[in-house]
Amino acid sequence: KVNNVLKEMERSLELACGSELWNPRTVFESNPDFTFCFQYTLLIWAPCLFLWCAAPLWIFMLSKPSSNKIKISYLFISKLFATTCLIFIELINLYYAFDESNKTVFYITPIILISTYILVIFILHLERKSGRCNSSILFIYWLIMTLASSITLRSKLIFHFGQKSHEEIEKRLYKLDEHDIYLFYVTYIFICLNTILSTFSERVFYKIVLSKNSPEQNSSLLSRLTFWWINPLISTGYKRDLVRDDLFEIDDKELSEASIQKLEKIWNPLANDYIKKVRALEDNKTFIINESCVRNDPAEKINLEVSLQ
């Protein structure tokens, strides 16, 4: 069944492209390359699918209130500018698709990209409002887009300047003009620019300024992955013994007090329900014991009736 589904999907993509999705002859040769249909569908759709699948959980995490805010900075404006330029480029591609092409894939892919870039802008806005100084999900998305676009860039460079084997056939099939090649070059530049910008972190303005805030809160994703932010403290410890003033203040959300509050919010209602059940069970056992005593001792029955009255 799985193979049938995959074959049906492959036939649908080939129908949308008007050519084959996978060609082993072009992949396993001295100058390997993927087909245009593969590059214009799976290589582009896969990163977009990742972002759309991860976005709901990420947006839910960003919806939690935070006292830290991020002001509009040059880094934020640069990210918006680069992403907005990509939207305009895809609108141009969509215009040429309506004007020149009759292949369905030339309409679907730009629409998917435009929708994904709008989602990126929405996530950037939520991250700024929630005080998130760096975005791991957007960094991963732009990194995958850069890797996928690099494969397409190689194919277009070969087509534009180098050898032309099956690329010539695809040019006649898809009518790739000079504007398509140059638009992709500009697209690749902005994708790489977004990848570079996503490695930097925003400056967080704390509502409560501590004597020595931890640099981890303002560090970039790569700095966190490599623990580069702690190098100054390690260097200080190498030169001399560390003292209390050398250590960073613990962030509010990492304090035990914050963890206890979260635990008590869940623990207290459950504990109260358990106590009520135990008391009800004890009262029931007491009633059963009294009832058994009444059956065995008639005098106890008279005393019980008097007490009930």
UniProtKB/TrEMBL annotation:
It is found in: Membrane. Residues 17-160 form the ABC transporter TMD0 domain. It is a multi-pass membrane protein. The chain crosses the membrane at residues 42-62, 74-98, 104-126, 138-161, 181-200. Keywords: Membrane, Transmembrane, Transmembrane helix. Its main location: membrane. It comes from the Eukaryota. Pfam families: TMD0_ABC. GO terms for cellular component: membrane. This is ABC transporter TMD0 domain-containing protein. It comes from Brachionus calyciflorus.
